[in-house]
Specification:
The complex is a heterodimer.
Chain A: H1 19-23, H2 34-49, H3 54-70, H4 75-96, H5 100-137, H6 155-170, H7 180-188, H8 201-204, E1 213-214, H9 216-250, H10 257-288, H11 306-312, H12 315-326, H13 336-353, H14 358-377, H15 387-408, H16 412-420, H17 433-447, H18 450-461, H19 465-482
Helix pairs in contact in A: 2-3, 3-7, 4-5, 4-6, 4-7, 5-6, 9-10, 9-17, 9-19, 10-15, 12-13, 13-14, 14-15
Chain B: E1 11-12, H1 16-37, H2 47-61, E2 68-72, H3 74-79, H4 82-89, E3 99-103, H5 109-120, E4 128-132, H6 142-145, H7 170-177, H8 182-205, H9 217-236, H10 249-262, E5 269-273, H11 278-283, H12 285-301, E6 305-308, E7 321-323, E8 326-327, H13 329-348, E9 372-373, H14 408-432
Parallel strand pairs in B: 2-3, 2-4, 4-5, 5-6
Antiparallel strand pairs in B: 6-9, 7-8
Helix pairs in contact in B: 1-8, 4-13, 5-10, 10-14
Classes of the chains: A mainly alpha, B alpha/beta.
């Protein structure tokens, strides 16, 4: 599929990469690489051959996960191993601790260690740069040496997983896991290790000891999910990224008003296709191994309010932020103003979770304000196909897209340039027919009501198996054709 | 954690339907491969080849033959604009003349031979053929050598027997392994080609009439074999020496055959060297030196005139280059104007228009001489930029009447003379081979008796 090699990776031509991704470390093995296909076929065969023995299958998946992660950079296996051992041990101590003070101390230790590691690897350079700017502003030399810390792929995802585990144990909502291999597998499970969904221990750990089941229906739905996820990533997201989004953000002056608007929509569809595509693949691959992961997206651009959007977008992160941050801050228990403060603070930190950049913070604050506005106006959740609902969806989509402009831009000036070209009368840029087709398909997948989507799926499943196999093969041809310049998944950098 | 089998046991519920699904998947691969193999479309050649096909096609479907055709590489595409040339040549409204360019991406001498043989000999331009010649037609820089092996031209399982698997590196092996999957890509590439692809080329050429491209099969097969031969040549070279002569004998031989063919062409031919930035030439010094020592004498010996625009100071300034080896728009307009004035107009007998310092003419610096490399007959069609108007940056005006063209008999004599010269060169080369007379390997000016005919110089 033209993807990168299985090992230290350099994926695709640099010019084809997302501007943000260029700044990120090299990605790990991509689902759309032949190396991953070979790797997974081996793991799949061995896993089901050993399925009768829990220890064997757990160790197999654990080793496979470490091989998968180590193929990117084996040094960071130590970091993941340390994080695993730390939270495994601390959770057991928290459970055994009698006094609340001791429990609090241990929990604080877990928080400090996890957030400390995350902060060091993800935000160290950022804070040094900010300190340097501050020193310069006060007339000092600002001569602070940079550490050039490499961001370990997936650290944000597995850190949030281990944190949620210790917090659940601390709150008494979950029993600490006794088996280290099981817990290590929960942290390192390769399908969702590097870009989510962020799995809760309460969902995943109970599945490990259970005898795995793979029905024909589960196999085929898993396969279809993988194919669909790859389609969204390779055909829609990569095409829109290369053909429209990158040119728009690098040369906005070439875009007229309408083209800019469509370009911003294209980015909304790109980031959705990219991230939800990865989530679909992760869920599909897990299903083939007998595991069920939570849904991460639910047609987010059908949202008709900010609250509705966050019920549909990156669900595993938004529920994590709600359960462990917003509620910990007091939620809506301490009055209106504190609720607003908590909302904004939660979204602000949620924005910062995406990366060390003021633009992510601004994007988070923007969504926090939207949620406050939502509370002020008190939009009722509505669904259905009434004209009023569609109007609200349309308006909400525009607000979402405005947020994506902030999210995609490296600086406020970049965002201003893109938004400024919305008012340009004419530009040189022209949309090709395949770009428009990809956008239409992407919109359709969002707007298609669930019953119709399910009907389409069951219609496909009713084809004779030989024909379906043939369709998958032709789908592979499409992926090969579209994926000649493979781009890493955007969310690898987070 | 238990190590005994689970009490309930795992459930692996895959059966015949899933096997059939797998079978459908696997069978589609060879089926699509066979369908593609037997179709007229071998679409999955690298884009550069598709580009070139469309260029050829655009000319083939043009309604009328052009008066002046300019063939060359991407340097011609970037550096020559037909508009000013056509305008210059069409001052006599009773006899308008059109100039068309026919650029080929990554043009090699081997490809030029095919173009001359298949396209131009049967259907030459009405009045003049201009060929943009360059050093890169005869060798590959090291970093491109790996890509020149032609594995992208593989299209099916049937191509596998041609592949020397044991000699491939990992990247090449991976590329070759994908060959059977290309049948699966064919329906999608067809859509791209007919949708986005051709429309892009149509915009670029605006002569294309939107008809489907011709078959790629024969082209890709032949090029693949050539790529294998070329690869053997590259691999047989000693370790990289930046000063070693990099010209590939296969390309040089192809060019010599082309010269012999051009001698039979039904219209005059002029060779031009398009300008490159000085730093580019410095970086490719071995290539340029060998090109000037070996190729330019061959052109002169075959009786063709050659103009080296690198000698024109105006065209070597940084401001006229888009990149070190390609002109930008400013440079393209200046070069086109000069080409029309100094090369084309004298060859076809068009006088300089009174208003030729029109909006296209933007001299940047006073022009240095553009010296023609005259052929053995010693004919000099013009002495452009001889200094008469150096202060204004304008070359001297073109003469009023064309140089009389050769008769078929004269052409035959010229071809025979060239062949004799070629035979002499080959004999000298054979003598110079180690073990064949004990002489060190000789080429270019080091060969005794290889001095070009009068005026040919070494292009240096």
């Amino acid at each position: 599929m033209g993807g990168p090699a299985f090992g230290p990776l350099t994926s695709g031509p640099a010019g084809a990469l997302d501007r943000r991704v260029e700044l990120a470390p090299p990605p790990p093995v991509l689902f759309n690489s032949p190396e991953f296909v070979a790797f997974f076929v081996l793991v799949f065969g061995a896993y089901w051959a050993l399925a009768r023995w829990e220890a064997a299958r757990v160790w197999l998946l654990l080793i496979a996960s470490y091989v998968f992660y180590g193929a990117w950079d084996a040094r960071f296996l130590v970091l993941m191993g340390f994080s695993t051992l730390l939270d495994y041990g601390l959770a057991l101590w928290i459970e055994r601790a009698r006094s609340p003070g001791r429990r609090r101390l241990l929990m604080g230790l877990s928080l400090a260690a996890n957030l400390g590691l995350l902060g060091f690897f993800k935000y160290c350079n950022f804070f040094i740069e900010q300190a340097r700017s501050l020193l310069r502003a006060f007339g000092a030399s600002g001569d602070l040496s940079s550490l050039d810390v490499i961001l370990p792929v997936g650290i944000s995802f597995y850190t949030f997983q281990t944190l949620s585990y210790t917090l659940d144990v601390y709150r008494g909502q979950l029993r600490a896991e006794r088996s280290l291999p099981r817990f290590a597998l929960f942290v390192a499970f390769f399908p969702q290790l590097v870009a989510g969904p962020i799995v809760r221990a309460s969902d995943f750990l109970p599945q490990i000891p259970r005898a795995p089941r793979l029905t024909a229906a589960a196999f085929e739905s898993g396969l279809a999910l993988i194919a669909w996820g790859l389609f969204k990533k390779v055909v829609i997201a990569d095409l829109l990224g290369t053909e429209v989004v990158d040119p728009l953000w690098s040369r906005p002056e070439q875009f007229g008003g309408l083209a800019t608007l469509l370009g911003i929509y294209a980015y909304a569809l790109q980031i959705y296709g990219d991230f939800s595509g990865y989530s679909d693949c992760a869920i599909g691959v897990s299903r083939l191994l007998g595991f069920e992961l939570c849904e991460n997206f639910d047609a987010p651009y059908r949202a008709c309010s900010p609250r509705d959007f966050w019920r549909r977008w990156h669900i595993s992160l938004s529920t994590w932020l709600r359960d462990y941050l917003y509620i910990s801050l007091g939620g809506n228990r301490d009055g209106t103003w504190r609720t607003y403060r908590n909302l904004i603070l939660t979204m602000l930190l949620g924005g910062l979770w995406h990366g060390a950049s003021w633009m992510f913070v601004i994007w988070g604050a923007y969504h926090g304000l939207l949620l406050v506005l939502d509370r002020l106006v008190d939009f009722k959740f509505v669904d259905g196909d009434r004209p009023g609902v569609w109007l609200r969806r349309l308006v909400m989509f525009q607000f979402t897209c405005l947020g994506w402009v902030l999210f995609r831009s490296l600086t406020l000036e970049d965002a201003g340039a893109v938004l400024g070209s919305l008012t340009a009368a004419r530009g040189e840029f022209q949309f090709g027919p395949f770009v428009l087709l990809a956008m239409a398909v992407a919109f359709l997948t969002q707007l298609l009501p669930t019953p119709r989507r399910l009907a389409l799926e069951s219609w496909f499943q009713s084809w004779p198996p030989l024909l379906r196999g043939s369709a998958y093969a032709l789908g592979l041809g499409l992926l090969l054709t579209a994926g000649s310049g493979a781009r890493p998944f955007i969310y690898f950098q987070f | 954690m238990e190590s005994a089998p689970d009490a309930t046991g795992p459930h692996f519920g895959l059966g015949r339907p899933q096997l059939q699904l797998l079978l459908g998947f696997l069978l589609t691969i060879p089926l699509a491969d066979a369908l593609l193999h037997h179709s007229d479309y071998r679409l999955l050649v690298p884009e550069v080849h598709i580009d070139n096909q469309v260029q050829r096609y655009a000319r083939a479907v043009a309604e009328s033959r052009e008066e002046v055709l300019i063939v060359g590489s991407s340097r011609v595409q970037a550096g020559i604009v037909p508009g000013p040339i056509t305008k210059y040549l069409s001052q006599d409204e009773t006899r308008p003349r059109s100039a068309r360019r026919l650029p080929f991406q990554a043009l090699t001498a081997w490809t030029l031979e095919r173009i001359v043989r298949d396209e131009l000999l049967p259907d030459p331009p009405r009045e003049l053929l201009v060929i943009g010649i360059e050093e890169r037609m005869f060798y590959r820089p090291t970093h491109e050598a790996q890509d020149a092996l032609g594995f992208g031209l593989l299209n099916s399982l049937a191509d596998w027997p041609q592949v020397p698997w044991g000699e491939l590196d990992a990247r090449q092996r991976k590329s070759a392994l994908y060959a059977p999957l290309r049948g699966l890509q064919a329906p999608w590439i067809l859509a791209v080609l007919y949708g986005q692809g051709l429309s892009r080329y149509r915009r670029m050429l605006d002569e294309t009439l939107g008809q489907p491209p011709e078959t790629f099969r024969d082209l890709s097969r032949a090029e693949f074999q050539f790529a294998l031969d070329l690869r053997a040549e590259i691999q047989s070279r000693p370790a990289a020496d930046p000063d070693a002569d990099p010209l590939l004998p296969l390309e040089v031989a192809a060019f010599e055959r082309t010269l012999a063919r051009l001698a039979r062409l039904g219209c005059p031919v002029r060779f031009v060297i398009l300008p490159v930035a000085p730093e580019y030439e410095a970086g490719e010094r071995a290539g340029f030196r060998a090109f000037r020592q070996r190729i330019l004498p061959a052109i002169a010996a075959a009786g063709f005139e050659l103009y080296d625009f690198n000698r024109h100071a105006e065209l070597r300034q940084p401001g006229v280059f888009g990149n070190p080896s390609h002109l930008n728009d400013v440079g393209a307009v200046a070069l086109s104007r000069l080409l029309a004035h100094a090369v084309i107009a004298p060859a076809i007998g068009v006088a300089a228009p009174a208003d030729w310092r029109d909006e296209y003419w933007r001299p940047v610096l006073p022009a240095a001489a553009v010296e023609p490399q005259a052929g053995p007959e010693g004919a000099r069609a013009s002495e452009p930029g001889s200094g008469a108007e150096a202060g204004s940056g304008d070359p001297a005006p073109a003469p009023q009447s064309p140089r009389p063209e050769l008769t078929p008999e004269q052409r035959g004599e010229r071809e025979a003379a060239f062949r004799r010269w070629l035979a002499e060169q080959q004999a000298l080369e054979a003598q110079a081979q180690p073990g064949a007379g004990g002489e060190p390997k000789a080429d270019g000016e080091s060969k005794p008796g290889a001095a070009p005919p009068a005026g040919g110089g070494g292009g240096g």
